[in-house]
Specification:
heterodimer; A: 2 helices; B: alpha/beta; nine-stranded mixed beta sheet; 50% helix; 8% strand; flat
Amino acid sequence: MTWDFTVDTALIRQAAGMLDDAGHTYRGHDSCEVFRCPLDDASLGPSAAGREVVDAAGRRVIQAVEGAQALGLRVAATADGLRDCAQAFDATESLTGRGPR
Amino acid sequence: MSIAPAPSTAGLPALREAALREGLPDPVRLADELLAIDAERLREWFTVAGRAAGWLRQGSDRLSDAVPALGAGWSNPAPRTEIAALRDAGMSSRAVIIEQVQAADLACGALQQVKWHVDAELTAADAAVARLGPGGPPVLGSLPDGRPELMGILHGLIGRIDELSARATAELQSLALALRADPRDPIEAVPDRRGAVPPGAPSVPGARLTAPSAGSASIDTENLQRLERDLDSTDDATREMAVGVESALARARAAGGVAQLLLYESADSGSQGRAAISVGDIGTADNVATLVPGVTNAPAAMSDGVRDAANLRAEAERQSPGESTAVISWYGYDIPLSFVSGVPNDIPAEIDNALDALDDDNAIAGGALLARDLDRFGQWAPATARFTALGFSMGATTVSAAEAQGAMVDDVVLMGSPGASAEVSTAHDYPHLPADHAYLVAFDQDPVTRARTDITVGLLDALVSGPRLAGPFGPDPAGADFDAQVIDVTTNVAQVDVSLTIGGPMGWLTDPMASAAVQQVEDLRHHSTSNYLSGASGEAAAAVVLGHYTDVPIKPGR
């Protein structure tokens, strides 16, 4: 398979920097805060619904934070991948000595 | 703003006393339970989710800006498509979170209103009682029987508190439903292409869109290696168990895609060995259930246990398709009568193994092992995973004994239990498990859960080991005194009533005795794992595994 693309590695690196910023934001600006659910089993009363909410609230809020942070890590990895690609394009460029494709 | 506990003039104690005398529910106790609901703390907790939603919106905005910037530098659309997919996943996750935060906010507001109304009702009732009769409120202990004004106030208060309680429950049920969605699902649904080279990127080392994943060593590598060695063992017992476990692993793989051998200890001439197989990946599971079998089972024949585990997992995933559940079939205790289906042991070991069925000694020793293994499983699972231990028959006694010895799980489900082990008297004796997280299924027709089984086995046990102070398997967990959550379901096996006529001069005596004996055998058809894990009973067990407590029908203990 052949590809015919236009590449500007400086702009790819610039986009990678924007992804870094996005990843940092997804991770809550790399906050080290540890979140602990303040609810205990009896906080919402003895009903089954109360216990289910306590159980689910404890997990869902933590999972909301975890999900955002996991997305931040994937975006950061994508940024690294873009930089690797830019480097590879530069290396190819220096080997072939041709101008922009 | 917080609401103070119920006011305390003589009016409310008088109402409580009247309610007690009339056999009516105590409205002040129910009111106090409603006033104790900590809605503000719930609201505060969801501000953390609100912050995560903010990160997701801001991060996705930045990704939106990056997409055209990347397009200017690289005309290949594939990387942009991938970044846009991550952005969209972030926004979808945020939508789930926002919905949950709003649901929590609504519920908190409604619960706060309920508390205001409860407070107002108590104050009004208190004042109304104080106005009764000449000379102020009635003196405690001297209330005139059937005093109509007082009874009117009491019935009115009970009705209004009941209404408010129902409203609070409805609000909590609505919030519970909103919280069944996992905000990570949209993010996990995006294929992880770490390590893949994007189309159009130059084929030189390092040219990949995303960084390679760290990779994690399989948690069961060592166990699998031991199993592999045992398959070639010259010891018949060792080899037979290995063959059985290998077959069970294949069944688990077929059912769950991922099968993990979490525990493997070889059998030999004096032991049936120990094994645990997870159907589904414990490393990524939202819910982890551990299923413990009863007597006559053995690791060499654990395919049956894996089948039950797979069925429970399928039911959990049917009820909550967005969540991943791993069910561990745990054959980790010295199961009585295991030689029936397991590897051949020496004769003294088999006799000892048969006698083990007469009491809860093996369940108590197994409970300690289960508590330890659950701790290890907890280290392999995600931090937010829910843990449930379920046991059938002697397995239920083992689960109860594990809880009594400090096992850390969110819930237990005891099915067809002959007793809760001598380690506990009630469900309140579990050190790390609130009593209302101890669930129990006992079919009325199942003879093993009835007292007469304890008496029969107790007599046999007394002949072998001497008399005991308590029953051979501990208290009946289905009893009202035990105070567990008794699940309101019926057996899936059709009831057959046996009536034999032998006749003859002693027929009046032999006919009922023979009928009772055959009925007992017939009733044993109700005592099977597959019966307890199918139909409404299986649905309830899966609902507990998921933490969907509102879906579990409860009835009073017997």
